Amino acid sequence: MAGAPLLELQHISLSFKGVKAVTDISFTVQQGEICALIGPNGAGKSSLLNVINGVYPPDEGMVGFNGNSYRKMQSHQAAVQGIARTFQNIALFKGMSVLDNVLTGRNLKVKSSWLEQTFHIGRAASDIAKQRQKAEEVIDFLRINQWRNSIVGTLPYGLQKRVELGRALASEPRLLLLDEPMAGMNSEEKAEMSGFILDTQRELGTTVVLIEHDIGVVMGLSDHVVVLDYGRKVGDGTPDEVRRNPEVIAAYLGTSH
Amino acid sequence: MEFFLEVLIGGLLAGLMYSLVAIGFVLIYKASGVFNFAQGAMVLFAALTFVSLLERGVPFWGAFAVTLLSMLMLAWAIERMVLRPLVNRPPITLFMATLGLSYIIEGLAQTLWGAQVHGLDLGISDEPFEVAGLLLSQFDLFAAGTAGLLVLALSLLFNKTRVGISLRAVADDQLAALSIGIKLQKVWMIVWAVAGFVGLVAGLLWGARLGVQFSLSLIVLKALPVLIIGGFTSIGGAIVGGLIIGASEKLAEVYLGPVIGGGIENWFPYVLALLFLLVRPAGIFGERAIERV
Q1: Considering the entire predicted model, what is its pTM?
Q2: Is A35 part of any domain?
Q3: DSSP letter, residue A18
Q4: φ and ψ at A53, to 5 degrees?
Q5: Cα–Cα distance between A98 and B110 in angstroms, integer?
Q6: Do A182 and A68 belong to one domain?
Q7: Are residues A108 and A59 in the same domain?
Q8: The domain that contains A239 carries what CATH number?
C-alpha cells in the first residue's frame, strides 16, 4: 500500500504506576488499510488504542495523525480530527434508542446553534434533516433497520456491538479504532461483522485499526498485522509475513528450548 | 364541593412551587447521576444576592442580571474546582462533594450579604381573588405560570437541541461521550448554569413567599418526595410530582387533619414518597435501569 501514512506511532511508551504497559512502540498505518493489533492478553493492545484516541497521554513518544504530530491529544480533539472508536466492553448509551445512539455520533457535524435548534429557526431544520439522513444511511448500511427504535440496553450483545460500530461510523471518521469488535460472537456473527468492517474500508474508504484475538478472522480481514507481546512489538507486516515470523510464533505458541 | 376545589387548586399551585425547586435537581441528576444537595444553597444564594442588590438600590432587572451572572460564575467555579478533579468517581463521592459545597455556598452567601432575614416584594399581591366562584391566590397563579414557562423553555432546550442529547450521553457513559467528541466540561458547565438559573427563579418566588432567610436552603427536603414520586430524570415528572405532593398534602391537612390531628402537611409527602418507593421505585416518569443479566 503506497501513499502517506494516515497514522504514525513514534516510540510510544506508557506505564501505569511503574508497570510498563507499552514500551517503545512504533508503526505506521497507511491510508485506507485495515491494520490488526494482535497479541496475548495484557500485551498492551487496548492501551495503545487508548493512546491513539487520546484517553491516555503516553509517557514518551508522539502520535502522528494526518500529517500532524501530537505529544498529547485530548479525546475531544481526537474526535474532531476524525478518529472514532468502539470499546471492548460496549460503551453505548443504554437508555437511548438505536437511532438516537447513532445520531449522537453526528455530534460534531451539527452546524446550527442551540438557539436555532430551540426555536427551530435558521439552519436548524435542514441541519436536523441532514443528520437524520446520515444516521439512516448508517442504519441501512449495518442492516439494523428493524431495531431502529429499540432501546439499546434491551438488545442482544451482537447487535449492540453493531450499533456501537454504527455510532462510530456516523461521525464519518477517517480512522476507525475497533477494540475487539467480535469478542464473544459465534462464527456466524463474526463473519457478518467482518463483512461490515470490509465494507467500511472498501465502500467508505475508512482506515481501520482493530484488536482481535481470532487469528483466522484477523488473517482474512487485515492488510497489515502488528503483533505485541509484553508491551513490545514483536511483529509487523502483512498477514503472511507475520505468520512466518519466528518471534510471533514464539509469543503465541511458546518456544522449545 | 367548592371548598374542595379551592383546596385542591390551592394545593396544586403550591405544588408547582415545589416543582420549581425539584427541576434544579433533575437537571444535574440527568447529566451526572448525582443528587446535588447544594441546590437548596444555590436557591438561597440567588435569592440573597438578588434581594441584597435590590436593597442597595439596584433596579429589578439590573439585580436580576447581576444575580444571574453570579450564578454563572458559581457554576463555572464548581465545574473547575469540584467536578473536574472528581471526574469518573462514583456518584456517592460527588454527592458528598455537593454536601460540602452546600455549606460553602451558604457560608459564602452569609459572608457576602450577612445573615439577617430580608423581605422580598416582587410586586405581585398575595391577595386572593375570585375566579368562577373560587378564591385563588394571585401570587400562586403567577408562580404557576412561571413554572410553566420554565418547563417549556427547558424542554425545548433539552429535547430539540444537541445539548439535550449530549446531556443524556454524558450521564449514560462518560468515556463513550468523550469518544464522539462531547466535551464533558462544557456539558457540566451548561447544566450547572441552567440549574443556577432555575435556582434563581425558585429563590425569587420562595423568597417572596417566605422571606429571604437561611431556612430557604431547607426546601431541598421538600423537593425530595417530589423527585421520588416524579422520578429523578424527568422534568415533566418534577412537575407532576410537585402537583401530587401539593394537592395531597393540602387535602390531607384539611380532611384528615380533624380526624388524626393537625400538622399533617409536614410529614404526609414523605409517607406518600415511601409508598411510591415500594410500588414504583423509579418514580412515575423516571428511567428504569435496564440490565441484561
Answers
A1: 0.80
A2: yes
A3: T
A4: -85, -5
A5: 49
A6: yes
A7: no
A8: 3.40.50.300
DSSP H or E stretch at residue A207:
strand A207-211
Range of the domain at A157: 95-166
| Whether the complex's predicted ipTM surpasses the cut of 0.95 | no
Max Cα distance, chain B (Å): 62
Alpha-carbon gap, residue B209 to B217, rounded angstroms: 14
Say if CB B206 and CB B249 are below 8 A apart: no
> What is the number of domains present in chain A?
2
Pair A146, A195 in one domain: no
Give me the pLDDT at residue A255, please: 56
Q: Do residues A63 and A111 both lie within one domain?
A: no
pLDDT in tens, A3-53: 678 999 999 999 988 888 899 999 999 999 999 999 888 888 999 999 998
Closest residue to A167, CB basis, from B175, B180, B183: B180
Q: Residue A91: which of B186, B177, B292 has the closest Cα?
A: B177
C-alpha cell belonging to residue B284: 412515575
Pairing of strands A232-237, A175-179: unpaired
CB atoms within 10 A of CB B10: 21
Give domain status of residue A87, yes or no: no
In chain B, % of residues over pLDDT 90: 31
Question: Phi, psi (5° rounding) for residue A204?
Answer: -105, -10
| Min Cα separation A79/chain B (Å) | 5
> Which residues does B226 contact at the CB level (< 8 Å), separation at least 6?
B15, B18, B19, B21, B22, B238, B241, B242, B245, B269
Q: How many CB atoms lie within 10 A of CB B97?
A: 21
DSSP H or E segment with residue B78? helix B60-78
Same domain? For A56 and A177 the reply is yes
Tell me the pLDDT tens digit for each residue of B18-73.
998 999 998 888 877 788 889 999 999 999 999 999 999 999 999 999 999 999 99
Give the residue on B whose Cα is nearest the Cα of A99: B165
Q: Which of B165, B181, B291 lies closest to A108 in CB terms?
A: B181
Torsion of the alpha carbons at B156, B159, B163 and B169, rounded to the nearest 10 = 160
Distance, CA of A203 to CA of A210 (rounded, Å): 18
Under an 8 Å CB criterion, which residues of A touch B?
53, 55, 75-76, 78-80, 84-85, 87, 91-96, 100, 103-105, 107-108, 110, 114, 117-120, 124, 151, 153-154, 157, 167-168, 171
Q: How far is B235 from chain A (nearest CA, A)?
A: 16
Query: Of A128, A100, A96, A99, whose CA–CA distance to A112 is shortest?
Result: A128
* pLDDT (tens digit per residue) in B185-196: 888 888 899 999
